[in-house]
Protein 1
Amino acid sequence: MKLRHAPLFLVATALIAGPLVLFAEAASAGTSASPAITYQTSRINSGTPNSTNVTKDPKTGAVTSYGDSAITYTVPSPALNALGQSLYLQNCASCHGTEANGVPADGTQGAYPNLQGLGAATIDFWIVSGRMPAANPREVQAMRRVPRLTDQQAVAISAWVNSLAPSYPAIPSVNIKDGSYSNGQALFALNCAACHTIEGSGDALAFDTYAPSLRHIPGYQVVEAIRSGPGNMPRFTGNLSDAQVRDIVKYVLTYVQHPQNPGGLGFGGLGPVAEGFIALLIGVGMLALAGYWLGERE
């Protein structure tokens, strides 16, 4: 049976957690110091080099890739740093400062987010989703737009920013071939549907923010969002393994982006309330017209 409603306690949890996340972000925005690297977790295969497969540079000992058969994370090559710095200074430094520490040219401390220590995947996500460079740096929530920079340019900028304070997650590549659709559906309902809706259409949150639609998002960006927690979204680290994240991605890329609607017309995934209203309007309306017509014949 296809799921249509998120459990009530999940909705309540989202309503409580949303303002708390916003408050935490507002509190952290007041400082330009490098953010504490809290991404580390002791759980194996959960988005950090504590993974089944870890590859290191034989000369420097630096991690170059990690992960398992579900997701492979790749640290951008240091060879991209020069290009990345040049692109960063052209597109990002006016707000985030020349050292990516959130201090612009006028020296205002904490004016913009500090990018150091966030991991390459975090930087890559904001650029490839078109949210950065921001059209309006003061808008409440950056909207997804057509990217100004190419994927290769985004990786180069990520390489340079990450070189300032190396951290994780690295840029992921997900293998959904062996993923479980049913497990992904259950995990999505438990962890994602309260905000994004079970249809993945997105929904409004508190303080003029919203959970975006997942309809046209590549799989690797779904992983980046889950592992980095952009905006109001929680960061899922030790509570979700790479295999579980892979299953969620498979569900998003199949059902959410290509719904089957075996029960009839899906009406674009408007949701049960809108679909029920349309069914009621058409169904009862047709019955009323049929009754009127039969009555006139009598």
Protein 2
Amino acid sequence: MERKVVFSGVQPSGGLTIGNYVGAIKNWVDLQEEYDCYYCIVDLHAITVPQVPKDLRQNTLKVLAIYLASGMDSEKSTLFIQSHVRAHAELTWVLNSISYMGQLSRMTQFKEKAKRSEENLNAALFTYPVLMASDILLYQADLVPVGEDQKQHLELARDLAERFNNKYSETFKVPAPLIQKFGAKIMSLQNPEVKMSKSDTDENAYILILDKPDAIRRKIKRAVTDSIGEIKYNDDQLGVKNLMNIYSVFSGDSVETIENNYQGVGYGKFKEDLAEVIIEGLTPIQEKYDYFMKNKDYLEKIYKEGAEKANYAAMKTLRKVYKKVGFIQP
């Protein structure tokens, strides 16, 4: 039986956090056993905000190395760089022609980024959800792993697929969300009401996948808790709940087990143990990452082979689209 297709990607716009790892990458590694997966490094998305070119190139390779170090297998998944498959940009132009300004202006992330980037309020920032839709639809994805905060973008992809299909006849699969129930959203260590983000101005708010042990210990020690003093998993203790989510993901223990193990124990001991659990979980990833970053030729081989496979699938879709909108085939 033909396997269902999964598509997802990460921006190479700086260090990836344990939120990226827990909410996305770790889950993707498991999905490749069951699905036909396309995992992309979305460098086209990255330039919606200013980038230093040499840093962007380096960060793109770093993300690929993290993919591989985390357990993604180029034999099981298609790993590639978005800009290496031109069909992403080409399909975006076609889908722009059926995208409505009003719908794009209501995108939550656009409104948030517009506030932060008033001096750089460019057209790409406004239309990048259409590029995101193109990413997904090009590969006829059945499922897209998304967090709650990205469901709106997936809804746009679904709308555009249905709109195109209704206008020109069946062309795209309408993708469905694949939402991880537990631990999908790791929150800021300094404000547990917002998602952990690598763009946070406070470096104590996030832990990077590549952070050294001392940095991890320092950040966990400074993580926000409360004055209650009990390790309990509830919405009245959001800081503790967030730390327990992180502990559960990296240790494999249930939150109930963690509650029982730390009954009557203060936050200090809990935080010390949590830091060591994270360090133990990240060390093998960091060691493999260092190996891959020292072997740039191997990384080049992976992304070139991935682009070839991705391009083959993407062009099949793009040729159908071009024919249906009335373009003469070259």
Protein 3
Amino acid sequence: MKPWSFQQIRRVTLSRWLARGTREFTGRVSTDSRDVRPGDLFIAITGPNFDGHHFIPEVLEAGAAGILASHPTDAAIGSAVAASVTLLQCDDTIRGLNRLAAAYRRELRAKVIAVGGSNGKTTTKRIIHTLLTTRFSGVASPKSFNNNIGLPLTLLSVEPQHEYVVLEVGTNAPGEVEFLGQVAAPDIVVITGVGLEHLEFLSDIKHVAREEAALARFVATDGILLLTNDSPELLAALRLVHGPRFTIGASGSGADMEATEIHELLTGIDFVVNGHAHYHLPLLGRHNVYNAMLAIGVARRMGLTDAEIQSGMQNVKSAPMRLEPLRCGSHFIINDAYNANPTSMAAAIKMLATLPLADDGGERPRRVAILGDMLELGPTAVDLHHQTGSLAAENPIDLLLLVGPLMQHAAEAARLRNSTVFHFMDVASAAAALPGLLHPSDVILLKASRGLRLEKLLPVLGAVESDFAAPR
């Protein structure tokens, strides 16, 4: 961020002086004591596993210029005074971080683009960022910095010369999107769609839609909302939100931007927009066409030409563990183990089922799905896992390996349809059985909620190659 005085920081974070130091703030904000550099402002966050206040001595040693804390010890205060470091105290450091980011956002010249929705946020954010870098200078949320710590840190990473920032806005409980929307105050809002996510806290699809739609209320008066047109629940939740909007959808859907001539390849997807603009997206999964179209809409809004967009699209790369193609030993892996809900699980299953795998004269490649529990679904979990098992069995998948207690219900449903199914209660049990179940030429999908850490199966499948030729 542009370096501010500690007087400015104290004012916007509603904090008070505990120590006034002489070290100058260089503009970098950190919440990770291991990452602090000389001149940084360190914000001590109290989380479920660590309390940043415990690491204040290390932060002082690393050369921080200032610290924002809520409950520093007397020893920490004395050490800050002795080191000429500014120490500010506020009621809640997470709120202090967000107050600082909201105040800084009001000074930004960069266009703020906020991406929300149940599925595809990270991929859509990455595509937008890749396209915009063909002409502009900007930043995007690293990894999945989409909560009340990651989003403000991303805003505070914007430098005066940047022309845009792409934020990812996540939620797992009511009110989180509204809070982040107020901080971001976006110029462009993208909602990728709504699906069955975090039902333990959001109850049902209507509540999910209301939560995701909250982001649109904070778009600038001269801004725009981009969204898919395939969710009646989302459209209903947006009925009281006014202002320009741009929709994307399938051919014949009546959307402003429609995809036609979609061809799935092992190297990605070819598609045409509104009958004339041809694109190649180097990602797997038919659903990623719609993420790409949302990104195209943003790029056009920012003034990019079709030629610039087509060129930029060639540089798009999959995010780690999100339909990420890998070669592990002799196996072709589609690693989508970062997270899962019923909507994204269904999309991944259909992607595996439609991959164009040709027989090369040797052993016919088999389609193998290794699926793990979908978490935070509340009382609907059993039914939704049962539906996932039925869906997997309806598709041309040769071998279904299901992992976790909830996936037992998916296994029961799949067996009713005579699928070849094996169920394991945990990842360790699955790892022990895999060598005896897989064939060398198998094409394997890994998909589960983050809590299962399904990617731990990769070493069992073989050494991961960074560069390889996809099977045909």
